[in-house]
Structures are given as C-alpha cells and as structure tokens.
Amino acid sequence: MEKFAKIKELIASVEADVEKFYNANNGAAGTRVRKGMQDLKNLAQEIRAEVTEKKNTK
C-alpha cells in the first residue's frame, strides 16, 4: 500500500507541470512530465511484481 500512496503523490505532483506543458506550451514542464511518467511506470512495475509474488505464494 505504501507504493500505491507514492503513485498517488507522484500524480498529484506532476499535475501542475502537465497543465503548464499542455496549456502554456512550457517545454521544461514537458521534460518534468516525462520524468514523472517514467517514475510512475517504474513504481507501477514494482507493484505488479509484488502482487504477482504475493498471489503465487498462496
């Protein structure tokens, strides 16, 4: 559950940069969005691995 909470925090922290990139055409914000999305992908993959491991140990 801790990693899921981190995902929610990460999405909230990237939201302002998403708005800056899409609405204000701020290129630097786009770079931050891409980094945030990569971090999100990595966290999601870790959660997937944990769920699979827990499911298979039952």
Describe this structure in words.
There is one protein chain. The protein is an all-alpha fold. It has one domain. It has helices at residues 2-24, 27-56. It starts with a helix and ends with a helix. The relative contact order is 0.15.
* Count of all domains: 1
Number of helices: 2
Query: Biggest sheet, in brief?
Result: none
Overall mean pLDDT stands at 94
GO molecular function: DNA binding; structural constituent of chromatin
Function: Might have a role analogous to that of eukaryotic histone proteins.
InterPro entries: Hc1 (IPR010886)
Pfam families: Hc1
Task: Considering the chains and any ligands shown, give keywords for the structure.
58 residues, mainly alpha
How do the strands and helices of this protein lay out in sequence?
Layout: H1 2-24, H2 27-56
Function: Might have a role analogous to that of eukaryotic histone proteins.
InterPro entries: Hc1 (IPR010886)
GO molecular function: DNA binding; structural constituent of chromatin
Summarize this, please?
The chain has helices spanning 2-24, 27-56.
